[in-house]
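Re: the multi-chain job from yesterday

Posting the exact lines I submitted so nobody has to dig through the queue logs.
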Amino acid sequence: MFSYKRRVKYYETDRMGVVHHSNYLKIIEEARIKWCDDNIMKYSEMEKRGCIIPAASASENFLSYLRFDDPFRVEVELKKFQGIKMTFNYKIFNEDTEELCYTGESTHFFANDCGNERYLPYISFRKDFPDEYQKLKLLSSEV
Amino acid sequence: MFSYKRRVKYYETDRMGVVHHSNYLKIIEEARIKWCDDNIMKYSEMEKRGCIIPAASASENFLSYLRFDDPFRVEVELKKFQGIKMTFNYKIFNEDTEELCYTGESTHFFANDCGNERYLPYISFRKDFPDEYQKLKLLSSEV
Amino acid sequence: MFSYKRRVKYYETDRMGVVHHSNYLKIIEEARIKWCDDNIMKYSEMEKRGCIIPAASASENFLSYLRFDDPFRVEVELKKFQGIKMTFNYKIFNEDTEELCYTGESTHFFANDCGNERYLPYISFRKDFPDEYQKLKLLSSEV
Amino acid sequence: MFSYKRRVKYYETDRMGVVHHSNYLKIIEEARIKWCDDNIMKYSEMEKRGCIIPAASASENFLSYLRFDDPFRVEVELKKFQGIKMTFNYKIFNEDTEELCYTGESTHFFANDCGNERYLPYISFRKDFPDEYQKLKLLSSEV
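And the result, structure tokens for all chains:
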């Protein structure tokens, strides 16, 4: 199982003393990009070749609370890959207590980076990135 | 229908040129707090009286993209209120084009602000805030 | 004196219970862009015409603390304009108490938006935006 | 020289394609807290014992631009320590190119975490944290 680890930053907390819930989408983005770097292709490279991967949807459960300096682990799993879209599952654990803090899911599509539109047009990922397409195909069939 | 309006801030965009998707949870928080201020009780007052309202879950669909300075409108609706929890629905529209940009939902519970726990303990909202309880009851039965 | 007003957002606070100090650069950006919209030219329009205005330097004093929902006022003043650079002064006041919370200064230059360089190249603002150049000239001589 | 290293996160960029300038105060906070953890005392522990260390002032120069995934190194140096206040210097380098991207300075004071005031009251750091006081004294005399 792929995992990504770090500690909670001071500025990620809010006046409740816990991580502001909007930050989990940032945290799982960090983890997903690392997953992509390790398993498919350097994400920054993919963008240089004209492919961006925006979020289409997300859902999240906030189960217990992370506080400043808590060490945590994000487990990332590719749940589905249908050629033009892919869906990831996430679990976040407090590494001190092994409590499950968060479960989430996000779906992304492959688009190109055309400057000024409200809709980011789909690209043919299969055609433009054949090797990466095969890797995703393989990884998604495993799960 | 309650609505909350403003424009996209520069710092809310990312290198794709659109609002970073994590910011929508901040935007709907602004709108929900304004809804609460107008319909139930000043949110800051509620916190002074010891009640915090953390998020338990959220789900979101990113339908079209908002860019810097785009004017938008968040429509907020109380979907459910079960005494210890409540669920809101959100729709965000681009006010220039009337396109629907975002649909979302979030569920919150009433807790007290005890400093150092990983779980934020539920309070009895009915007992501690009887007037506000009635207002929520009323508003939730209307929808 | 130009001023920009709003209230502190929940997500702008940190676990100290006050606005995280990094947010003041966002707040003065909002105020500066509004100043620019009102006095010089729609900022978003300026970017569409290829001019971006990055920060070159900033300095700040955090004098007293703003908390969630505090109403505040940012006073913005163009301090200097030398054709390729301009410097702004900011003061933030708590609108409930009239306390001065913050003083700051930021310097910006006019550049073009060439995608991949580490240095953002200066543009000739005088030549490319003659009318806006005159407005800035005038406003800076007044102060 | 103490240094702190990581890469630029996607969500730290703005529509210019570079790190939004407000994020540098977050980045140097991460680096300063790590410096404090390593040299003085676990920062989170200090807060548990009632001491918070807010920023009193900051100044920054943005020299060249960091983009998504750029590796960087923050060099942190204690510049001054006068018992109730301390000042740090920061330099950020792009680790790929060794370009200097940023120089900054921030001053902090030792306060206690009393909930609702606009002014955070100074504590006597010398009395409450004698060992940590000596360490800071020593480190500041070295530079």
